[in-house]
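Materials and Methods. Structural model of Roadblock/LAMTOR2 domain-containing protein. The 122-residue sequence of Roadblock/LAMTOR2 domain-containing protein from candidate division TA06 bacterium was retrieved and submitted for structure prediction as follows.
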Amino acid sequence: MIDYEIRLSEILNDVPGTILVSLVGTDGMGLANSMKDDSIDIEKMDADITSVVINSQKIAKDREKGSLMELFFTTGHSTYIILPINDLYFIYLLVEGEKQNLGLARHELHSSLKDFEESLKY
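The predicted structure was written out as tokens:
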């Protein structure tokens, strides 16, 4: 069985510019996280990102174009990568600064997906 916090810490430390990685249920409750910025209200962040995921899943379903595969959004200073694990869970990563490596961030999330899928089967 995967240790969620250890795996999330590995992603956090392996991807330049990453300040937060979180494993969240679609109910908005975080299962585990790892972060470098303690000023972030992780419970609020998880709930806010959950709203984005739920609304995106609804759009995908309404358009009948398949299930949600991946989400990216960028603000002036931050990039969020969100990856659904299944219908009930997702993982997201927040990168900031000049050292962002989005390709590596995506790769790390996708490479860890199988471990999370196995552990979070329902």
